[in-house]
């Protein structure tokens, strides 16, 4: 029972990673995605290949929707649930989101 509670608390704290003074840019988005992928695949962040597709990492549509939901909280923006299928790697997705956020600020 304790491990279940700990697991749930860890998941909640991971989803609520947006920090007030954190600058959201391509680097911070990429770092968040690397941490998330490493946690999901149970590998070290240094082992995450940011050019590898989400499909190659074995992400299915259910997991992809969850990741997008958590990413929405991180960047404080609504996102398409299909985003990980449109931008298929960490590199592509972080670049796209950074460009979109910069366009919105301009």
UniProtKB/TrEMBL annotation:
InterPro entries per record: ACP-like_sf, PKS_PP-bd, PP-bd_ACP, Ppantetheine_attach_site
GO molecular function ontology, one term from the record: phosphopantetheine binding
Matching SUPFAM superfamilies: ACP-like (SSF47336)
Organism: Gynuella sunshinyii YC6258
Pfam families assigned to the protein according to its UniProt record, in alphabetical order: PP-binding
Name the record gives this protein: Carrier domain-containing protein
Keywords per UniProt: Phosphopantetheine, Phosphoprotein
Domain Carrier: 24-101
Keyword Nuclease: no
Keyword Phosphoprotein: yes
